[in-house]
Amino acid sequence: MASESTLRFGAQTDEVTSLLRIVNMVRTGEASTRPEIGRVTGLGRGVITQRVDRAIEMGFLEDGEFGPSSGGRAPRTLRFRAEQARIVICAFGALHINVGIADLDGDVLDHAHSAWDIARGPADTLDHALGMIDELLARNPDKPVWAVAVGVPGPVDFETGRPVAPPIMPGWNGFEVRRRFEQRFDAPVWVDNDVNLLALGERARRHDENADLIYCKVGSGIGAGLLSQGRIHRGANGAAGDIGHVRVRDSDAQCRCGKIGCLEAVAGGWALVRDAEAAVAAGAAGTLARRHEQGDALTPEVIARAAEDGDALAITLVQQSARVVGEAIATMVNMFNPGLIVIGGAVAAAGELFLAEIRQRVYELSLPLATRDLSIVNSVDDVREPLRGGAELAREELFERTFPRWFADGRPTVDGVTSAA
C-alpha cells in the first residue's frame, strides 16, 4: 500500500497541477469564469473555488466584471494580472539595437532603437544596451522584471545562451550573454537567434498558435526561423534555419565565416554593398553611383530603396539576390512544407521587386503539393517585430515550460527557473 506521505505528496501534486492549469486557462482566454473552468476541467465547484482563491491570493488572478447570464445569476469573470510585472527584450542586429519592455500578455509598452555596430564587441555592446533598458525602466517604474529575452544575429546554443562562432560578431564566441542580464535583473534570461524572435513575433501578430511558418531575414546576413505547429524548431544544437551558409553552386565568393560560396556571400546585404561598390568603381552610373561620389555610405537599406526608385544597378543586384535566396528557400519548402513564408530584413525592403523574384523561384523549384497552400509575403517592417517575438519567447518559457518550478514563490528568479523541476 502507498504510504501516507506518498498519498499526501500526490494530493499536493494534483493541487499544484490544477492550480497551474486554471491560471493558464484564464491567461490564454480558454476560460474566464468559474463555471467555464468547471466545464473544461471537470473539477467540482468547491475545488475550483479553492484553487481560484489561492491564485488570487498569490497575485496571478483577480476578479473582473460580471459576465453574461445564462438564465441564473451572472458569473463574475476572472482576469490574469498581466500588469504585475515586466518582460525586458533586447534585440541585437548587425548595425542596431532594439530594446523594449512588455507586460505579461506580451504587449510592448515602450521601446527604443539605437544605431550600433555589434562588431564593437560584447562588453561595450551590452553596456550600451543595458543603459538603453535602464532609461526605459526609469520611464516605466515600480514593476519588477520577471524575464529577459535576448536576440543576437548569429548561431546560439539555446541551452547555455552562448553565441557559437558567429561570423559577424567578433569576440562573442562562447560569451556569457545571459550572465550580464541575470546579474542586472535577477530574473531568468533566454538568448536566441534574432530570426527565431522574428518568427515568434509573426506568430503573435497573426494569432496563429499552430503556424507552420518560415521567417526568412535577408539583411546584412541571411537566416531563417522555423515554426512547426507553432513551436520554434531549433534542431539538436540551435543551428536549424542558418541557411546563410549553405553552398551556392558555382560560386567562389569568400564568406565572412571563412568558407567559400556561402549564400550570404552571394546574396546577403553586405555582399550587395561589396558588388555595388565594385560596379561604381568600374564606371556604373545612376543613383547609387551619385550617392557614393557624394560620400554617402552604401548600405543594404540604401540599395533596396534605390531599387524601389528605379536605379538600374540596384534593381540588378536586388533581383540577383532574390533569385539565389529563392532557390535556397525552395529547398526548405520541399523539406519543411510551411503554409507561410515571411520575407523580412533590409534587402527585403525593396518590396515587391524582391518578393516577386523569390516567389517565382520557389514555385518553379518546389513540389506542387508543398506549394499548394503556400503564401509568400513581406514582413510588416516594424522595428517592434523582434520585441514582440522576444516577449513571446519569455512568456512561453515562463508559463508553459518552467511555471511549476517557480509559481509557489510568486515570481520567477534565476535559481527558481534554472534549477531542476
Automatic annotation (TrEMBL):
Pfam families associated with the record: ROK
InterPro entries hit by this protein: ATPase_NBD, ROK, ROK_cs, WH-like_DNA-bd_sf, WH_DNA-bd_sf
Family statement: Belongs to the ROK (NagC/XylR) family.
PANTHER family the record matches: GLUCOKINASE, ROK (REPRESSOR, ORF, KINASE) FAMILY
Name of protein: ROK family protein
Source organism of the structure: Microbacterium fluvii
